[in-house]
Amino acid sequence: MHPNDICKPTEIQWQPVIVRLRGGIKKKVCGPLQGFEILNRHMASPNSHICANAARCCRLALERKMTPEQAREAFVVATMDQELRAH
User: Which Pfam families does the UniProt record give (predicted)?
Assistant: First the structure.
């Protein structure tokens, strides 16, 4: 996916984040559902404390128990911790 691709409509969105996954693939992450999937499928250490916290934050945002912006911050921290690039 090209970073300029349009995000698919989802129920809950945040300001898009571009991450570079292992293998150099770029992915635009538009909300907590996509963030949760990235954290569980593409992280080198998905069980690390930082990744687990970010996944929990994404889940809470999906349940409307946390703002999408707070979940986005946790997601960005997790991608940086995993040495992925988040923009």
Answer: DUF982 (PF06169)
Report the pLDDT value the prediction gives residue 47, as an integer from 0 to 100: 64
Give the global pTM: 0.81
Strand partners, 45: none
For the chain, helix (H) and strand (E) counts, in that order, are: 3, 3
Note whether 16 and 7 are within 8 A (CB).
yes
Nearest to 13 by CA among 63, 72, 78: 72
| Residue 85 token pair | 């690039």
Return the structure tokens found at 72: 């986005």
